[in-house]
Design goal:
Elements lengths: L10 H5 L5 H20 L4 E3 L1 H12 L4 H8 L3 H8 L4 E3 H8 L11 E3 L1 H12 L4 H8 L3 H9 L4 E3 H14 L7 H10 L34 H6 L8 H14 L4 H8 L3 H17 L19 H7 L1
Antiparallel strand pairs: 1-2, 3-4
């Protein structure tokens, strides 16, 4: 496929041989700007190493050369030369490449399937059925199967978005399938509670397994009994109930709550955020802090009622 000819009124079109008035003026202006930059000590060409390293990091995270070029607004050939060891690059082009965040979500093409695989496996760990995940994601059951099995290294952006939607909807619900739950247990797949949202797509990200595994405790009202000081082991749902209570009705910080539950603060904050998001989705009252009083103040009964 031939490269498109630059538009009229640009220096690049002048370089292609067009000598119309608008292209000539653009070329003259570009030449004057180059001379001014040279006189002012502003080099047009700068070392390419920082931009090259950034482009390589983006490629390592699964972006193709074409996707990087599209996000930067440059030609794919420019990115190929940059990754291939180009020593100097236009300062404007370097700025465009460096402006792409490593966490960029591309809008077209293929993306790594790692995040989708981890999300589906986490939903399996909650006992969600294959067809339910497929229905929420808007993809086929075969696609869910292949992603869970790790058979696909990449997938289309639209499919990845569908899996993310399914994960957001189902990650705070428990499924009914003991088969998928057993498969996840045998395979060592971590549930949503163990994953921070910002590491699900990171090849170097690992689940947080510092929280104790959910173990059945005899009797009911496990969360309430834990809050009263009884030595019981909290299951996943009991843990959510405890975290919601501590955030709503105590002045404990997330770090203090995490210490009590033997978890990481980021995991505690993630559960709290999901509880609020789930309440919004279901049209329920959103959990919120209900105690704001300073700790060093002696509160009266009236103060406590107002704080509550």
């Amino acid at each position: 496929m031939s490269r498109p000819v630059p538009a009229h009124g640009t220096a690049n079109r002048y370089a292609y041989g067009c000598r119309c008035e608008s292209c000539t003026k653009a070329a003259t202006r570009a030449d004057a700007e180059r001379r001014l930059d040279r006189m002012a000590g502003r080099p047009r060409q700068i070392p390419a190493a920082p931009a090259s390293d950034h482009a390589k990091a983006l490629k390592a995270r699964g972006l193709t050369v074409s996707q990087i070029a599209r996000e930067a607004g440059l030609e794919p050939s420019t990115i190929r030369r940059l990754i291939g060891g180009q020593r100097e690059i236009l300062a404007t082009n370097a700025a465009k490449v460096l402006s792409i965040p490593l966490t960029v979500r591309v809008s077209l093409g293929d993306v790594p399937a790692l995040g989708a695989t981890r999300r589906i496996r986490a939903l399996y760990a909650l006992g969600h059925l294959n067809w339910r995940i497929a229905q929420e994601a808007g993809i086929s059951r075969d696609a869910v199967y292949h992603l869970a099995a790790g058979n696909w290294p990449t997938l289309k952006v639209a499919m990845d978005d569908g899996v993310r939607t399914a994960y957001d909807r189902l990650s705070m619900q428990t499924g009914t399938s003991w088969k998928t739950r057993r498969l996840a247990e045998r395979s060592g797949w971590a549930p949503p509670l163990a994953w921070d949202d910002d590491v699900l797509d990171d090849p170097n990200g690992v689940p947080q397994t510092d929280a104790p595994e959910p173990v059945a405790t005899e009797g009911g009202n496990v969360a309430a009994r834990w809050l009263l000081g009884e030595s019981v082991i909290l299951g996943a749902e009991d843990r959510k109930e405890v975290i919601q209570h501590l955030f709503e009705w105590t002045q404990l910080t997330k770090e203090e709550i995490a210490e009590r539950l033997e978890m990481k603060p980021s995991a505690v904050e993630q559960i709290w955020s999901r509880l609020k998001r789930q309440a919004r989705l279901e049209g329920q009252p959103v959990p919120q802090r209900r105690v704001y009083a300073l700790r060093d103040k002696d509160l009266s009964k009236k103060d406590m009622e107002e704080a509550a």
